[in-house]
Every structure is written in C-alpha cells, then in structure tokens.
Fold this sequence. Notes:
Pathway (chain A): Cofactor biosynthesis; adenosylcobalamin biosynthesis
InterPro entries (chain A): CbiM, CbiM/NikMN
Protein name (chain A): Cobalt transport protein CbiM
Largest sheet of chain A: 2 strands, antiparallel
Largest interface: A-B, 75 and 86 residues
Number of strands of chain B: 2
Mean pLDDT of chain B: 89
Helix content of chain B: over 70%
Mean pLDDT of chain A: 88
CATH topology of chain A: Arp2/3 complex 21 kDa subunit ARPC3
Strand content of chain A: under 5%
Helix content of chain A: over 70%
Number of domains of chain A: 1
Number of strands of chain A: 2
Low-confidence stretches of chain B: none
Strand order of the largest sheet of chain B: 1-2
Structural class of chain A: mainly alpha
CATH class of chain A: Mainly Alpha
Number of helices of chain A: 9
Oligomer: heterodimer
Shape of chain A: globular
Organism (chain A): Blastococcus saxobsidens
Subunit structure (chain A): Forms an energy-coupling factor (ECF) transporter complex composed of an ATP-binding protein (A component, CbiO), a transmembrane protein (T component, CbiQ) and 2 possible substrate-capture proteins (S components, CbiM and CbiN) of unknown stoichimetry.
Number of helices of chain B: 9
Low-confidence stretches of chain A: none
Order of helices and strands of chain B: HHHHEEHHHHH
Order of helices and strands of chain A: HHEEHHHHHHH
Amino acid sequence: MHIAEGFLPAGHAVGWTIAAAPFVVHGARAVAKEVRENPESTLLLGAAGAFTFVLSAIKLPSVTGSSSHPTGTGPGAILFRPPVMALLGTVVLLFQALLLAHGGLTTLGANAFAFAVVGPWVGYGAYRLTRAAGAGLLPAVFAGVALADLATYVTTSVQLALAFPDASTGVAGGLVKFLGVFAVTQIPLAIGEGILGVLLFRVLTVNARPELERLGVLPPAPLAPTGGAA
Amino acid sequence: MTGLAVDDAAWASAWRGRAPTDKLLLSGGLVVTALVLPAWPGSLLVGLAAVVLALGPARVPAGTFLRAVRWPLAFIAVGALTAVVTVDGGGLGWAPDAGARAGGLVGHALAGTAAVLLLATTTPMSDLLPALRRLRVPAAVVEVASVTYRLLFVLLESLGAVREAQAARMGWSSPRRSYRSAGLLAAAVLTRSWDRARRMQEGLAGRGMETGLRVLPESQPSSRAFLASGLVLLAAIVGLTLGAR
Lengths: 230, 245
C-alpha cells in the first residue's frame, strides 16, 4: 500500500523527494554505466523491472482469510543489489501510479524512499548478515525478503507520523497509531512474503542455477571431473 | 487490449493524439493546484475539472475512471481516519478538528488522484517516456523503463496463463498449496522474463544493435489553444478558491 497522491503536505512531499533523490540518481548512474559497458544489459534490467511489477500483482493468502500482495523488492534487492533496485523500484512506482493509480506523482519521492531505498537496503543487509553468520541461502532469503517488506511499511508509518503528529502526544503518538495500522498488521504479510521468497529461490536454485551464479547469489559450481587422458 | 484498464483507456482516449507535454502540463498543473490550494473549495474544483475533462472531451469510460479511483480510496480512508484519531491517556478519541482535517485530507488526495488519472487515462506510457528525455533523464534509464513497460504485458499474460493452469489443478485450493503455487508462479515468471530478454537481445544483436533501442517517435504537435485553455482553467480554479476565502 503506497501513500496516495495528494495525501502528504507539499513540504513533506518535497522533503522526501530530496531524501530519495541521491539514492535514485546513484542507481541511475549505476544502470547507465552498466548499459554503456554492456548494451545487452538494457533488456535484462528491463526484465528485472517488469518482474518486480508483476511480482507485486501475485495474490498471497493472508491470515485474515483475505489476500495481500508482496512488495516485490526483497527478491530484487538480493538478485540485483540495492542501488539498481533504487532506480528499478522508482520506475515500478511510477508505473504503478500511472497504470494502477497506486501511489502518486507528488508522493513518488516518499514512496520511493520507503519502497525502493529503505526496503531493499534493509532486506539486502539482513540477507548479507544472515549469510555472514553462516546460514544457508534459503534462511537468508527469508530474513531478507521479510524484513524488506516490513521495513517498507515501518518507513511509511514514520513518514505519515511526521506529516500527521497526534493532536495530544505529537509525533511519538502518531507513530504508535500509524505503526499499529500499517506495520503491525503487516507482520504476518511480511512472513508470508518471506515464505514466498524461499519458495521462489528454491525453484531458482534448481531451474536457473547458471543465472544465480552469474548474479553472484550462488558460488560457481566446481567443474565436473573429466575423463583422464589415456 | 493490454490487460490494464487504465492503459487500455489511454490508447483509446480521444486525447491520444494530443502532445504528451501538453497533457503533462495540464495534469501537472491540476496536481500542484490540488496540493497547495485549500481543500475547500480548491480540491472540489480540481477534482471536478479532472473528472469532467476525462469523461467529456477525452472520452474516458466512466467505469474505468471510477474503478481506478477505488484502489487508492482504501489507503485514503484508513490513513485519514488514523490521522484524526488521538491517543491520550491510554484511550482513543477524536482530535478537536477531526471532521475538518479528515475532510481536507480526503479532498486533497481524491482531487490529486483524479488529476493524475486524467494524465494516466489519456496518455500511454510509451508516449510519456520519451518526454523524460527532455527532462534530462539519461537515455539508458529511459530505455530500461521502456523495456520494462513493453515486457509488463508479456509477463502479466504469462502470470495469468500459469495461474489459470495451477488453479485448474487445484493449486490454489488451500493456503499451503497457494503459497507453493505462488512460489512456482514467481519463479516461472522470472525465468520467462530472463528467457524473453535473452531472446530479444540475441535478435537485436543479429540486427546490429550497438548504441541502444531507437524507435521512430510519433509526431504529436503541441496545441497553443489547448495550453491556453488549460492555463485559463487553472487560473479560474485559483481565483475562485482564493475569492471564496
């Protein structure tokens, strides 16, 4: 769920756009460099953006009996790294605003900061830390994807609390309210997205191992021994 | 038909042939007006102008427009309600000016959403992306965004087909099976997107692609009358809103 068009006051909309800009510009430079060096990357990066958009269209069953949609940035951050996701996530948000009316244009900066910057960086950090602690790929993917989802909604709650502090208890009270509505309810959905990430990577390790090795997610498999010379 | 109702409306709109920058200026002006003017009567006037222009001269189907507004409505309602509830001494209550604040928030958000939808339902993304080049967005970024847009529909079609096949095999009949199917579905879409990108790349490399994906832009000249009418509309909204206060 993204912050709708016109919901944030003008000052906050501008402030979050300025906050997100360095990350998105850094991502754009990384993408431009990659495309300059390898023009064929354009198509793979475009495919990654389209996959993030489409992943957010998959319905997951939720504990309340209804359904929810994954944010889709966790797997992208693990596969393509956070700087690239800062740009691809912003492009996906622009498409969601103009093709689905999810989010908006003046709130693009705030949504990009939560969805394309904080979510991917927290998710990627959790993934790397879990791997560094000696865990296997799948537990690390679960931690990365679930925390990317949760961090996105915690950031959205902070943004809303800063814009709409509680009348008596200020920003702290506002944060309690918005976390209660947008983040606590998201915990089961974040766990669900983590499980989806594990199922996705389990299939990919079997069906797309060369791609995962090329992206650095899995170490290159040792070469199979060949028959010795006679 | 592309499968996304807003995109379908944009391709079929009577304003499809108008210059994207003209529509961008009009909608952008309405978005900014909705954001900075007081909700009463500014938001009402902006929302009304966007809806009348979309359903009238741009001939966007009313059902498509209303269904698109329905999506952000859930966030707007929950967000506005949370903003005007106050937590004090362990109990919940209404903030002193709860009605006016909630009304203002809903008004700003609905008017802004209607203004964005005016652009979205009249201008396909493939017309808007070249306009980003004029805003000095790097060509490589615009190209990646263009490929993303074009692949979206292929992948959404794959998603629908695989999901339908899974549903026919009882793949979504229980939460456990649904999760397993969702994982397989995401993996199938990702590997298909890689495969599709690789095949496109090989095809383009065979045709000598070296410096990027160049396409012939459609000629959509700017209209001074359209721009002047838009300016008059925005000035009238600002004048009426400030005059009413």
